[in-house]
Amino acid sequence: MNLVRRSLTWIVVLSACLVAAAAEKPAAFRDALEKRAAVIKPSAEELRWQRIPWLLDLAEGERLARQEDRPIFLWVTGDDPLERC
Amino acid sequence: MPVAVNLYKVRAAEDAGGELFRSVQRQKDQYQGIWIVSPQGKVLAAHHDIKSHETWTQEVLGTMDAAARTFGPRPPRQVKATNPLAFRGRGVQPGGHVCLAIYARQMLGGGAPAGVPDSRAWIWDGPLRPDGPVVIDSLTLDAEQWATLAPPKAEVGTTWSVPEAVARHFCRVLIPSSDQSAMPRPEDAKRARLTGTVEAVEDGRARIRLAGVWEAVHLIQENATRPLRGAATADGYAVYDLKLQAMQSVLLVFSGTHGRPNDEAESPTGAVVEWRRERCVATGTRVR
After folding, report:
1. How large is the C-alpha radius of gyration of chain B?
2. Chain centroid, CA B177 distance in Å
3. B3: which chain A residues are within 8 Å (Cβ-Cβ)?
4. Alpha-carbon gap, residue B269 to B257, rounded angstroms
5. DSSP 3-state assignment of A49?
6. Between vectors from CA B222 to CA B217 and to CA B227, what angle results, nearest 5°?
7. Can you spell out the DSSP letters for B225-269?
């Protein structure tokens, strides 16, 4: 009787573990993926320049510069400066 | 007034911005870089050739100081921080197209794949880590292309392939060069396969596992003597809202190599493609 009870207990525990493992597997995959992504993605320090309120239209920049009477900081590159550059 | 523009677009522009740029370039002729210009259109200072990467920041600050000395003092500008690329990696735009955010890098470590010669093994030693600056990029998919990432059925185990014509667009992540002349185009793909599998359906959402493999050979400036090869596999996941019949998030992480075709000197690369449905909320942070 003890053997049966012990076996049933083990089956219940094992089943619970398997169910938990099955449920955790996708979450573990996502966690691992997000960790890999974090290694590749830029740090907040690398993206500080994005806090600058860049304008993407020089005509609008000229209008605002005249309105506020301050110079234009004009950044020009062979690609879109805020994108692949 | 910080303005960031594309050289090829602004120099051909017919508006006041194009006119100002052509005037600026006549006053201080340089291919690209930084010009600091008075509100009346006079060039106050400019910067093009860097002396070194170590002094680059100081060189730009020196250029700004020179312009400020010529123009005279102005009080700090009070302005709210804004995101000029608000849809990059976020939200669905009018018309249903989305802009996926891309980050790509040359990497070090992660373990050498088969066939790497001993002399190159050091590149693959140690944990995976960045090697140099990140390439920031994006990929816009129209509504029809975007719909192909959605599961055809909300049943666990459903597997489907994204059409190759759509998968080819992801080739741009394979070569982590900021210069678009080195960027593979969809037509450069030798292999482009992206599949999805519904791994769970819960709380009105389908959780999707993504997997893909890509290979492309791109000719720099269409020059047959300057080929670049990039190849990668990707793992990813996406969440699809069954009630809204709409994707909620996508994350793809690429792991690959790039170099000249048939060259043993290939280097490891990594890339991330990500998107979320919810838009950024303005922080209202003031910057000067």
Report:
1. 23
2. 10
3. 54-58, 61, 72-75
4. 5
5. helix
6. 35
7. TSEEEEEEEEEEEEEEETTTTEEEEEEEEEEEEEESTT-S--EEE
Dist CA B7 CA B35 (whole Å): 12
Helices (H) and strands (E) in chain A, counts: 2, 1
Q: Are B178 and B135 in contact (CB under 8 A)?
A: yes
Residue of A nearest to B137 (CA): A84
- The answer to whether the beta carbons of residues A62 and B20 sit under 8 Å apart is yes
pTM of the shown model: 0.83
Q: Find the residue in B nearest to A66 (Cα).
A: B39
| 8 A C-beta contact, residue B167 and residue B192 | yes
- Would an 8 Å CB–CB cutoff place A52 in contact with chain B? yes
Residues in chain B: 288
Inter-chain CB proximity B34 and A75 less than 8 Å: yes
Q: Mind listing the pLDDT tens digit for each residue in B166-224?
A: 999 999 999 998 888 889 999 999 999 999 999 999 999 999 999 999 999 999 988 88
Alpha carbon B60 to chain centroid, angstroms: 24
Q: How many CA atoms lie within 13 A of B88 on its CB side?
A: 13
Given the cut 0.90, state whether the ipTM is greater than it. Answer: no
With beta carbons less than 8 A apart as the criterion, state whether A78 and B39 touch: no
Q: Cα–Cα distance between B38 and A72 in angstroms, integer?
A: 6
Contact B43, B25 (CB under 8 A): no
Local confidence band at B84 (pLDDT 50, 70, 90 cut-offs): confident
How many angstroms separate the CA atoms of A70 and B191, rounded?
Answer: 52
3-state SS assignment for residue A21: helix
Amino acid at B84: P
